[in-house]
Amino acid sequence: MEERMSTSASCLEGHAALVAEAEALWKDYSLTSVREWKKESGGIAIGYMPVYVPRELLWAQNALPVGILGGGDDLEIIRGDAYYQSYICHIPRSTIELGLNGSLDCLDGVLFPATCDVIRNLSGMWKMQFPDKLVRYLDVPQDFDPAMGGAFYRHELQEITESLPGIGGRSYDEDALRTAIQVYNESRQAVADLYDLRRREPWKIPTHELYVLLRAGMVLPPEEHTTMLRAYETAVSDDESRRPMDQARVLITGSFCEQPPLGLIKTLERAGCYIVDDDFVQVHRWIVGDIPVDGDPLGNLVTAYLENSIESPIRYIDDGVKGQGLVERVEHYGAEGVLFCAPSFCDPALLDQPMAVKAVEDAGIPWTAFKYSENSGQFQVIREQAGTFADSIKLWSGE
Amino acid sequence: MANDARTNVSKDLSQERQKRMIAEHFSKLARAPDEGRACAYTFVPGNLTELLNSFDVLPVLPEINALQSGMRGKSRDYIGLAEKLGHSEDVCTYVKCDLGMLKSGNIGPTGERLPDPNLLLLSYTGCFTFLKWFEILGQEYDCPVVMLHVPYQGDGKITNSMRKYVVDQLRNKVIPQLEEISGQPYDEDRLKEMLARSAQAEDDLVYVLESAKNKPSPIDAYFGGVYYIGPIFTAFRGTQDAVEYYRELRAEVEERVKLGKGPITPEGEMEEEKYRVVVEGPPNWTSFRQFWKMFSDEGAVVVASSYTKVGGVYDDGFRHDPSRPLESLADYCMGCYTNLNLPSRVDMLVRYVEDYQADGFLINSVKSCNSFSAGQLMILREVENRTGRPGGFVESDLVDPRYFSASNIKNRLESYFQMIDQKRERGRKSGQGD
Asked: ipTM of the predicted structure?
């Protein structure tokens, strides 16, 4: 990574260079860095769709996990639209486009987690379109009893481990998985530390920078990504030029799958919002805290999913209270308001939203809502809406 | 799935029976609170009707209420009300219709108020929206919710791990909850008796659906099919009423086959079968009769459909099996159409086009249902490529009348049938040339 940084970002220094490097990695939809990693390491690359897959499992078998989060606002959709009706969200059509234009041909397989019906059905489309690749639908449990949902999930994970050697991955090895869990614990901690720093000093970490860094983690090996995050943390902590501004502290929710364009994040910040918590690129934060390294590592992955996953619209709440997790996040991050920011036609986010709105209203938290598409290009209306929202918080939050 | 749209035609015995069964069921539901009888709200795909009935628990199916609201012209207001309450215009209109109905007094299709649920049985089968739907209803009712997570057939098969997961949930979560709300212990012998009756009815249903292989087809397997699946997809599977209904229906269809009769349509009996098509996707309910008439006016008969498999696929040989009751229920749940992966759905549709000697394949893509709709354009191409028969595509919605554009759909259908004509003509000419 250092070598890449020194060349591609030679004109920049400190955090700006890191952000530029991260953005270059993200925007390289042909996955040059993944191709290079494969060549250097002899490993394989496995793509995954949002929201969550246990990347540790892949990494332990010398498979680089590669996040596929659509084509954003950069990709011209030529053939992808012919696969989807107008009332279906945008991420599957850009993903199909990336598949058809060869961008993803370095991937030896793709995992499609149980996020929604669109991503579920995309798994079958991928099977038909790319019959020579490993394609797996990862059915994560909605029952959280270890003896039922846990046993089922463990079997799902075992099937993944068994499928990798056949396409060039290493055989499953418990010690390798323990090492991988440790690597991802460090990654999760680095992300958590940045979120915590942003919570304390949001002026130090603009979200449009943090977001780009998170996206780089979709293609980088985890250790390299952690190094990048730590370097950024040091650089921004040392930057005394970043001073507090009179902005409203807001929490964004609803953007856990199809990602907003970077322009939208910048627009919200320019409209007077400090984004102090969000659900962007959520695979980094799905598991809260460390996963134990000792003992049965596969069992530890299962337990982490069952017991330490975040509250999410795609996860059934059996005995909890809908929206309680959101309210707790608002409190923890000191947010003054909530922006419900969901992609158009996103069933999980939009079906969940009225329940979440009720929870924040009951807690007396101001909120507003708008929708986007990953390729949205006009933000004027959102800017006005977010600006008015931020102003109202600043003017009347004390009343 | 529908009980009151076929007007202006003489009713067969089976129709009269179905009407009576439905009326009795809603009457029981209306009396349930006074009689202290428990009821459970649940979904059509992956429904556990025999299990519920074995506890004398009455099922209520919100999807059916929604489609009935659509047919009775009430869904527009119900959806509007839900959207005013903050539900997005982008999401499933069944959910919004159901919620609007609830907020409007929860009056069922017979004009009687539906009872509040004693249990929300969230059989999470083949549709992500179900999960959110019952989370939403969970906030409206003071009753337990029990989640039955039914794994998706991502690799096109049911594994032992998947089956065990479902059976474990049935045994350890669903059954104890049913014991609690009903006050009755689990009676496996009673369940087995019901499952045996289910299998009997399933045999007859399969005969009826497969009768469409005849030329002319004696049934319409989509518009007519939604009536035929009504009892077995809803509250009656496993009952003696359902056995009798399907026995009568089968006899009626056998008689039609013997006489070489075509299907009954909104305008009476179809005189000439001009086109045989396979249809994928649910029907539109708000203009159901008009939609059907667009087919029947052209002499088009739907000989097979995927929608009539949404509450259970039986023509692949599956039957409920009393010798392995819970395993059989698990396999039933996992085998429902929308729980199959796309390659399996394509295989099934290709098989239908070929086995039923269809002239073509048509998709009614509904805005509300991503479970059905996401991937349908690829399904269309695959089925076309593999069968060589022309594919057609129309768009509407389940119960939102704003998304039914009659002139657009009619134009598309007419063009589609012309395309079949042209293909036949080309085939005839090339046949002559040979």
From this structure: 0.95
- pLDDT tens digits for range A320-364: 789 999 999 999 999 999 999 999 999 999 999 999 999 999 999
In A299-338, the residues whose Cβ lies within 8 Å of chain B are 313-314, 316-318, 322
Whether B161 sits inside 8 A of A152 (CB atoms) is: yes
With respect to residue A291, please indicate whether it lies within any of the assigned structural domains.
yes
Tokens read off for B1: 């799935």
Structural domain for A70, as ranges: 31-172
- The fraction of chain A above a pLDDT of 70, given in percent, is 96
Question: B214, B257 in Cβ contact below 8 A?
Answer: yes
Closest CA to B310 of B224, B396, B222: B222
Q: Residue window 32-91, chain A: list those with CB within 8 Å of chain B.
A: 82-85, 87-88
Instruction: Report the pLDDT value the prediction gives residue A12, as an integer from 0 to 100.
Output: 62
Mutation target for A interface from B132, B169, B337, B372: give the one with most A CBs within 10 A.
Answer: B132
| Structural domain contains residue A300 | yes
- What CATH number should be reported for the domain holding residue B25? 3.40.50.11890
The domain boundary residue, chosen from A116, A142, A172: A172
What is the pLDDT at residue A314? Answer: 97
Count of domains observed in chain B: 1
Specify if B75 maps to a domain: yes
Q: Which of A172, A189, A206 is the last residue of a domain?
A: A172
Residue B417 lies in a domain: no
Q: Answer yes or no: is B67 within a domain.
A: yes
Q: Do B371 and A346 touch (CB under 8 A)?
A: no
Spell B356-382 as b/e; 16+ CB within 10 A means b: bebbbbbbbbbbbbbbbbbbbbbbbeb
**For B110-141, what is each residue's pLDDT tens digit?**
888 999 999 999 999 999 999 999 999 999 99
CA angle B18, B10, B12 (to 5 degrees): 40
B434 has pLDDT over 80: no
Chain B nearest-CA distance from A304, in A, is: 19
Give B133's contacts in chain A (Cβ within 8 Å): 351
- Could you read off the pLDDT of B211-255 as tens digits, one per residue? 999 999 999 999 999 999 999 999 999 999 999 999 999 999 999
Judge whether B126 lies within some domain.
yes
B395 three-state secondary structure: strand
Q: Where are the beta strands (DSSP E) in B237-372?
A: 264-265, 268-269, 275-280, 300-305, 360-366
Contact across the interface for B128 and A147, Cβ inside 8 Å: no
Structure tokens at B26: 């809603």
Q: How would you list the strands of the sheet with A134-138, edge to edge? A: A63-67, A44-48, A109-113, A134-138
Residue A233 forms part of a structural domain? no
Q: What is the pLDDT of residues A128-151, one digit of tens each?
A: 999 999 999 999 999 999 999 999
State the CATH number of the domain containing residue A115.
Answer: 3.40.50.11890
- The CA distance from B173 to B191, in Å, is 17
The dihedral region occupied by A347, where left means phi > 0, alpha psi between -120 and 50, and beta the remainder, is alpha
B179: containing domain: 13-187
